[in-house]
Design brief:
Oligomer: single chain
Number of strands: 13
CATH class of the domain at 32-159 and 247-286: Alpha Beta
CATH architecture of the domain at 32-159 and 247-286: 3-Layer(aba) Sandwich
Largest sheet: 6 strands, mixed
Strand content: 5-15%
Distance between the termini: 76 Å
Strand order of the largest sheet: 7-6-8-5-9-11
CATH superfamily of the domain at 32-159 and 247-286: Bacterial extracellular solute-binding protein, family 7
Length: 382
Amino acid sequence: MRIQLKPIVALALAAFAAQAVAQAPAPAAGVKSYKMQSTWPASLTLQDNFRFFAERMDKLTSGQVKIEALAAGQVVPPFEILDATHKKVIDGGHGISYYWVGKSKAATLFSSTPAGPFGMDHMDFLGWMYEGGGLDMYWDFYQKELKLNVLAFPIMPASPQAFGWFKRPIKNLADFKGMKCRQTGIVAEIFQKMGMAVVNMPGGEIIPSAQRGVIDCAEWVGGVEDLRLGLPQVFKFHYTPGVHESSSIAELIINTDVWKSFSPQQQEAVRSATLETFMRWWVKWQRQNADALVEMQQKHGTQILRTPPDVLTAFLKAWDEIAKEESDKSPFFKKVLDSQREYASKVVPAKRFMFPPYSFLANYYWPEDVRKGAAKKAPAKK
Protein backbone atom coordinates (compact mmCIF):
# COMPACT_ATOMS: atom_id res chain seq x y z
CA MET A 1 0.00 0.00 0.00
CA ARG A 2 1.36 3.40 -0.98
CA ILE A 3 0.85 6.23 1.49
CA GLN A 4 0.22 9.66 0.05
CA LEU A 5 1.92 12.42 2.07
CA LYS A 6 0.37 15.82 2.31
CA PRO A 7 2.40 18.46 0.43
CA ILE A 8 3.45 20.27 3.64
CA VAL A 9 4.71 17.06 5.20
CA ALA A 10 6.63 16.16 2.07
CA LEU A 11 8.23 19.59 2.03
CA ALA A 12 9.22 19.26 5.68
CA LEU A 13 10.81 15.89 5.09
CA ALA A 14 12.71 17.20 2.09
CA ALA A 15 14.01 20.13 4.11
CA PHE A 16 15.09 17.81 6.92
CA ALA A 17 16.93 15.54 4.47
CA ALA A 18 18.71 18.51 2.90
CA GLN A 19 19.82 19.74 6.31
CA ALA A 20 21.11 16.28 7.25
CA VAL A 21 23.16 16.12 4.05
CA ALA A 22 24.55 19.57 4.71
CA GLN A 23 25.59 18.60 8.25
CA ALA A 24 27.08 15.22 7.29
CA PRO A 25 30.90 15.16 7.23
CA ALA A 26 32.32 15.73 3.79
CA PRO A 27 34.60 13.12 2.30
CA ALA A 28 38.13 13.54 3.68
CA ALA A 29 40.19 15.92 1.61
CA GLY A 30 43.94 15.55 1.16
CA VAL A 31 44.15 11.88 2.05
CA LYS A 32 47.61 10.54 1.22
CA SER A 33 48.72 6.96 0.83
CA TYR A 34 52.25 5.72 1.45
CA LYS A 35 54.01 2.45 0.66
CA MET A 36 56.43 1.22 3.29
CA GLN A 37 58.15 -2.16 3.46
CA SER A 38 59.70 -4.21 6.24
CA THR A 39 62.54 -6.71 6.31
CA TRP A 40 60.26 -9.35 7.89
CA PRO A 41 58.14 -12.12 6.34
CA ALA A 42 54.39 -11.50 6.62
CA SER A 43 53.94 -14.45 9.01
CA LEU A 44 56.15 -13.08 11.80
CA THR A 45 54.93 -11.19 14.83
CA LEU A 46 57.58 -8.60 13.92
CA GLN A 47 55.39 -7.70 10.96
CA ASP A 48 52.44 -7.36 13.35
CA ASN A 49 54.31 -4.45 14.93
CA PHE A 50 54.48 -2.72 11.54
CA ARG A 51 50.79 -3.34 10.83
CA PHE A 52 49.82 -1.97 14.25
CA PHE A 53 51.72 1.24 13.51
CA ALA A 54 49.89 1.66 10.19
CA GLU A 55 46.54 1.18 11.93
CA ARG A 56 47.37 3.76 14.59
CA MET A 57 48.46 6.32 11.99
CA ASP A 58 45.16 5.87 10.17
CA LYS A 59 43.18 6.53 13.35
CA LEU A 60 45.35 9.29 14.80
CA THR A 61 45.16 11.28 11.57
CA SER A 62 41.41 10.65 11.03
CA GLY A 63 42.22 8.69 7.90
CA GLN A 64 44.40 11.41 6.36
CA VAL A 65 47.52 9.24 6.35
CA LYS A 66 47.19 5.73 4.94
CA ILE A 67 50.23 3.47 5.22
CA GLU A 68 50.48 0.20 3.35
CA ALA A 69 52.65 -1.97 5.59
CA LEU A 70 54.26 -4.31 3.07
CA ALA A 71 56.23 -7.41 4.04
CA ALA A 72 59.76 -8.35 3.00
CA GLY A 73 60.32 -8.59 -0.74
CA GLN A 74 57.00 -7.11 -1.87
CA VAL A 75 58.80 -4.18 -3.50
CA VAL A 76 62.52 -4.65 -2.89
CA PRO A 77 64.65 -7.39 -1.27
CA PRO A 78 64.59 -7.24 2.57
CA PHE A 79 68.02 -5.71 3.09
CA GLU A 80 67.52 -3.03 0.43
CA ILE A 81 64.82 -1.06 2.25
CA LEU A 82 67.28 1.59 3.49
CA ASP A 83 68.56 2.51 0.04
CA ALA A 84 65.06 2.19 -1.39
CA THR A 85 63.74 4.64 1.20
CA HIS A 86 66.58 7.04 0.44
CA LYS A 87 65.76 6.92 -3.29
CA LYS A 88 62.03 7.06 -2.53
CA VAL A 89 61.35 3.78 -4.27
CA ILE A 90 59.37 3.23 -1.08
CA ASP A 91 58.26 5.92 1.35
CA GLY A 92 59.67 4.22 4.41
CA GLY A 93 60.71 0.96 5.99
CA HIS A 94 60.61 -1.20 9.10
CA GLY A 95 63.79 -3.02 10.09
CA ILE A 96 66.68 -2.76 12.53
CA SER A 97 69.69 -0.51 12.22
CA TYR A 98 72.35 -3.17 12.83
CA TYR A 99 71.50 -4.50 9.37
CA TRP A 100 73.44 -1.51 8.04
CA VAL A 101 76.81 -2.18 9.72
CA GLY A 102 78.22 -2.74 6.24
CA LYS A 103 77.79 1.00 5.71
CA SER A 104 78.99 1.98 9.21
CA LYS A 105 79.65 0.05 12.41
CA ALA A 106 77.91 2.88 14.30
CA ALA A 107 74.61 1.49 12.94
CA THR A 108 74.61 -1.19 15.63
CA LEU A 109 74.64 1.43 18.41
CA PHE A 110 71.20 2.75 17.45
CA SER A 111 69.63 -0.70 17.81
CA SER A 112 70.93 -0.95 21.41
CA THR A 113 73.32 -3.77 20.65
CA PRO A 114 75.34 -5.40 21.94
CA ALA A 115 75.31 -5.61 25.74
CA GLY A 116 72.60 -3.05 26.37
CA PRO A 117 74.83 -1.11 25.84
CA PHE A 118 76.39 -0.64 29.30
CA GLY A 119 73.60 -2.58 30.98
CA MET A 120 70.71 -0.43 29.74
CA ASP A 121 67.36 -2.14 29.34
CA HIS A 122 64.71 -1.15 26.80
CA MET A 123 63.34 1.76 28.80
CA ASP A 124 66.82 3.06 29.65
CA PHE A 125 67.73 3.03 25.98
CA LEU A 126 64.48 4.74 25.05
CA GLY A 127 65.37 7.32 27.70
CA TRP A 128 68.74 7.90 26.03
CA MET A 129 66.94 8.34 22.72
CA TYR A 130 64.41 10.91 23.96
CA GLU A 131 66.09 12.43 27.03
CA GLY A 132 69.79 11.96 26.35
CA GLY A 133 70.16 13.32 22.82
CA GLY A 134 70.15 9.94 21.12
CA LEU A 135 67.41 10.72 18.60
CA ASP A 136 69.33 13.74 17.29
CA MET A 137 72.41 11.56 16.80
CA TYR A 138 70.23 8.92 15.14
CA TRP A 139 69.02 11.40 12.53
CA ASP A 140 72.55 12.81 12.10
CA PHE A 141 73.81 9.28 11.52
CA TYR A 142 71.55 8.76 8.54
CA GLN A 143 71.57 12.27 7.10
CA LYS A 144 75.13 13.49 7.85
CA GLU A 145 77.21 10.35 8.26
CA LEU A 146 75.61 8.16 5.59
CA LYS A 147 74.31 11.09 3.46
CA LEU A 148 70.87 9.51 3.11
CA ASN A 149 67.47 11.20 2.85
CA VAL A 150 66.22 9.20 5.81
CA LEU A 151 65.17 9.74 9.42
CA ALA A 152 64.23 7.13 11.99
CA PHE A 153 62.27 6.37 15.15
CA PRO A 154 62.61 3.47 17.61
CA ILE A 155 59.46 1.35 17.24
CA MET A 156 59.96 -2.28 18.29
CA PRO A 157 61.73 -3.80 21.33
CA ALA A 158 62.41 -7.23 19.80
CA SER A 159 64.25 -8.61 22.80
CA PRO A 160 65.63 -9.91 25.07
CA GLN A 161 66.78 -12.48 22.56
CA ALA A 162 67.85 -15.99 23.42
CA PHE A 163 71.48 -17.09 23.21
CA GLY A 164 70.58 -19.70 20.62
CA TRP A 165 69.86 -23.29 19.57
CA PHE A 166 72.35 -26.16 19.68
CA LYS A 167 72.45 -29.75 18.52
CA ARG A 168 74.43 -30.76 21.59
CA PRO A 169 74.70 -29.24 25.07
CA ILE A 170 77.42 -26.74 25.98
CA LYS A 171 78.84 -26.41 29.48
CA ASN A 172 81.43 -23.67 29.05
CA LEU A 173 83.32 -21.51 26.59
CA ALA A 174 85.55 -24.43 25.57
CA ASP A 175 82.50 -26.38 24.33
CA PHE A 176 81.44 -23.33 22.38
CA LYS A 177 84.63 -22.88 20.37
CA GLY A 178 84.80 -24.28 16.86
CA MET A 179 81.05 -24.74 16.47
CA LYS A 180 79.51 -23.55 13.21
CA CYS A 181 76.69 -21.20 14.07
CA ARG A 182 74.36 -18.92 12.16
CA GLN A 183 75.06 -15.33 13.25
CA THR A 184 74.72 -11.93 11.58
CA GLY A 185 76.02 -8.37 11.77
CA ILE A 186 78.56 -7.17 14.31
CA VAL A 187 77.43 -9.96 16.65
CA ALA A 188 78.95 -12.43 14.20
CA GLU A 189 82.28 -10.60 14.48
CA ILE A 190 82.16 -10.80 18.26
CA PHE A 191 81.38 -14.52 18.32
CA GLN A 192 84.08 -15.12 15.73
CA LYS A 193 86.53 -13.33 18.00
CA MET A 194 85.45 -15.76 20.74
CA GLY A 195 86.28 -18.79 18.59
CA MET A 196 82.96 -19.61 16.92
CA ALA A 197 82.92 -20.48 13.21
CA VAL A 198 80.12 -18.13 12.16
CA VAL A 199 77.95 -18.60 9.09
CA ASN A 200 75.87 -15.70 7.75
CA MET A 201 72.50 -16.66 6.29
CA PRO A 202 68.89 -15.40 6.29
CA GLY A 203 66.41 -16.95 8.69
CA GLY A 204 64.72 -19.01 6.00
CA GLU A 205 67.93 -21.01 5.41
CA ILE A 206 68.55 -21.99 9.04
CA ILE A 207 66.46 -25.17 9.14
CA PRO A 208 67.65 -26.73 5.84
CA SER A 209 71.26 -25.84 6.74
CA ALA A 210 70.89 -27.52 10.13
CA GLN A 211 69.33 -30.59 8.53
CA ARG A 212 72.25 -30.86 6.05
CA GLY A 213 74.82 -30.44 8.82
CA VAL A 214 76.05 -27.09 7.52
CA ILE A 215 75.59 -25.53 10.97
CA ASP A 216 75.71 -26.90 14.53
CA CYS A 217 73.84 -24.03 16.16
CA ALA A 218 71.84 -20.94 15.30
CA GLU A 219 70.58 -17.70 16.75
CA TRP A 220 67.33 -16.18 15.54
CA VAL A 221 65.16 -14.26 18.02
CA GLY A 222 63.74 -16.49 20.71
CA GLY A 223 60.28 -17.40 21.95
CA VAL A 224 57.40 -17.22 19.52
CA GLU A 225 59.53 -16.24 16.52
CA ASP A 226 61.76 -19.29 16.92
CA LEU A 227 58.70 -21.49 17.34
CA ARG A 228 57.11 -20.15 14.15
CA LEU A 229 60.35 -20.60 12.24
CA GLY A 230 60.40 -24.26 13.28
CA LEU A 231 63.71 -24.32 15.17
CA PRO A 232 62.45 -26.70 17.93
CA GLN A 233 61.97 -29.30 15.22
CA VAL A 234 65.67 -29.46 14.32
CA PHE A 235 67.47 -28.44 17.53
CA LYS A 236 67.02 -29.98 20.97
CA PHE A 237 68.92 -27.60 23.24
CA HIS A 238 67.83 -23.99 23.65
CA TYR A 239 70.00 -21.64 25.70
CA THR A 240 68.92 -18.38 27.26
CA PRO A 241 69.61 -15.59 28.07
CA GLY A 242 71.95 -13.88 25.67
CA VAL A 243 73.66 -10.52 26.01
CA HIS A 244 74.18 -10.00 22.30
CA GLU A 245 70.66 -8.53 22.03
CA SER A 246 69.49 -8.05 25.57
CA SER A 247 67.58 -4.87 24.68
CA SER A 248 67.67 -4.60 20.89
CA ILE A 249 65.25 -2.12 19.35
CA ALA A 250 64.06 -2.02 15.75
CA GLU A 251 63.32 1.08 13.72
CA LEU A 252 60.85 2.84 11.49
CA ILE A 253 62.63 4.76 8.73
CA ILE A 254 60.97 7.49 6.67
CA ASN A 255 62.14 9.36 3.59
CA THR A 256 62.85 12.96 4.59
CA ASP A 257 60.72 14.39 1.76
CA VAL A 258 57.82 12.26 2.93
CA TRP A 259 58.37 13.52 6.48
CA LYS A 260 58.30 17.13 5.29
CA SER A 261 55.06 16.47 3.42
CA PHE A 262 53.34 15.65 6.72
CA SER A 263 51.59 18.48 8.52
CA PRO A 264 52.92 19.31 12.02
CA GLN A 265 49.97 17.39 13.47
CA GLN A 266 50.73 14.36 11.30
CA GLN A 267 54.38 14.44 12.38
CA GLU A 268 53.21 14.39 15.98
CA ALA A 269 50.98 11.44 15.10
CA VAL A 270 54.08 9.56 13.93
CA ARG A 271 55.85 10.31 17.22
CA SER A 272 52.84 9.13 19.22
CA ALA A 273 52.14 6.08 17.06
CA THR A 274 55.74 4.81 17.24
CA LEU A 275 55.80 5.06 21.03
CA GLU A 276 52.39 3.43 21.42
CA THR A 277 53.37 0.66 19.01
CA PHE A 278 56.57 0.14 20.99
CA MET A 279 54.70 -0.48 24.24
CA ARG A 280 51.52 -2.20 23.03
CA TRP A 281 53.31 -4.70 20.81
CA TRP A 282 55.99 -5.44 23.40
CA VAL A 283 53.65 -6.45 26.22
CA LYS A 284 51.70 -8.71 23.87
CA TRP A 285 54.90 -10.22 22.52
CA GLN A 286 56.21 -11.11 25.97
CA ARG A 287 53.05 -13.11 26.66
CA GLN A 288 53.42 -14.83 23.28
CA ASN A 289 57.01 -15.72 24.17
CA ALA A 290 55.95 -17.18 27.51
CA ASP A 291 53.34 -19.37 25.79
CA ALA A 292 55.90 -20.40 23.17
CA LEU A 293 58.38 -21.65 25.78
CA VAL A 294 55.71 -23.92 27.24
CA GLU A 295 54.84 -25.28 23.79
CA MET A 296 58.51 -25.90 23.00
CA GLN A 297 58.91 -27.99 26.12
CA GLN A 298 55.60 -29.87 26.10
CA LYS A 299 55.15 -30.44 22.36
CA HIS A 300 58.71 -30.65 21.04
CA GLY A 301 60.67 -31.77 24.10
CA THR A 302 62.99 -28.78 23.95
CA GLN A 303 65.50 -28.54 26.78
CA ILE A 304 65.58 -24.89 27.84
CA LEU A 305 68.84 -24.27 29.66
CA ARG A 306 70.82 -21.42 31.19
CA THR A 307 73.65 -20.01 29.09
CA PRO A 308 77.01 -20.72 30.76
CA PRO A 309 78.10 -17.51 32.56
CA ASP A 310 81.67 -17.64 31.22
CA VAL A 311 80.29 -17.49 27.67
CA LEU A 312 78.34 -14.32 28.48
CA THR A 313 81.33 -12.72 30.19
CA ALA A 314 83.60 -13.59 27.27
CA PHE A 315 81.09 -11.97 24.91
CA LEU A 316 81.11 -8.71 26.89
CA LYS A 317 84.90 -8.62 26.92
CA ALA A 318 85.09 -9.28 23.17
CA TRP A 319 82.53 -6.54 22.50
CA ASP A 320 84.46 -4.06 24.65
CA GLU A 321 87.56 -4.74 22.56
CA ILE A 322 85.72 -4.25 19.28
CA ALA A 323 83.97 -1.12 20.57
CA LYS A 324 87.35 0.39 21.50
CA GLU A 325 88.78 -0.47 18.09
CA GLU A 326 85.82 1.17 16.34
CA SER A 327 85.99 4.23 18.61
CA ASP A 328 89.64 4.67 17.71
CA LYS A 329 88.76 4.55 14.00
CA SER A 330 85.52 6.55 13.94
CA PRO A 331 84.93 9.85 15.80
CA PHE A 332 81.18 9.48 15.27
CA PHE A 333 81.13 5.95 16.69
CA LYS A 334 83.04 7.23 19.73
CA LYS A 335 80.69 10.21 20.13
CA VAL A 336 77.60 7.98 20.21
CA LEU A 337 79.17 5.33 22.45
CA ASP A 338 80.43 7.96 24.90
CA SER A 339 76.96 9.51 25.01
CA GLN A 340 75.40 6.13 25.79
CA ARG A 341 78.02 5.40 28.45
CA GLU A 342 77.44 8.77 30.13
CA TYR A 343 73.65 8.30 30.20
CA ALA A 344 73.95 4.69 31.42
CA SER A 345 76.42 5.70 34.15
CA LYS A 346 73.62 7.63 35.85
CA VAL A 347 70.55 5.54 35.11
CA VAL A 348 71.78 1.95 35.39
CA PRO A 349 73.46 2.13 38.83
CA ALA A 350 70.51 4.09 40.23
CA LYS A 351 67.96 1.55 38.99
CA ARG A 352 70.00 -1.27 40.47
CA PHE A 353 69.28 0.19 43.91
CA MET A 354 65.77 1.49 43.29
CA PHE A 355 64.33 -1.68 41.72
CA PRO A 356 64.22 -5.04 43.50
CA PRO A 357 66.02 -7.71 41.44
CA TYR A 358 63.52 -9.34 39.08
CA SER A 359 64.67 -12.75 40.21
CA PHE A 360 63.99 -11.94 43.88
CA LEU A 361 60.24 -11.54 43.43
CA ALA A 362 60.08 -14.13 40.66
CA ASN A 363 61.73 -16.79 42.81
CA TYR A 364 59.45 -15.99 45.76
CA TYR A 365 56.28 -16.62 43.76
CA TRP A 366 57.59 -18.90 41.01
CA PRO A 367 60.59 -20.94 42.19
CA GLU A 368 62.74 -22.05 39.29
CA ASP A 369 63.28 -25.70 38.54
CA VAL A 370 66.87 -25.46 37.37
CA ARG A 371 66.87 -29.06 36.16
CA LYS A 372 64.12 -28.36 33.66
CA GLY A 373 64.88 -24.72 32.97
CA ALA A 374 61.32 -23.81 33.88
CA ALA A 375 59.30 -22.38 36.72
CA LYS A 376 57.46 -24.58 39.16
CA LYS A 377 54.12 -23.43 40.44
CA ALA A 378 54.66 -22.00 43.90
CA PRO A 379 52.54 -23.20 46.78
CA ALA A 380 49.95 -20.75 48.05
CA LYS A 381 51.29 -18.51 50.78
CA LYS A 382 49.47 -18.83 54.09
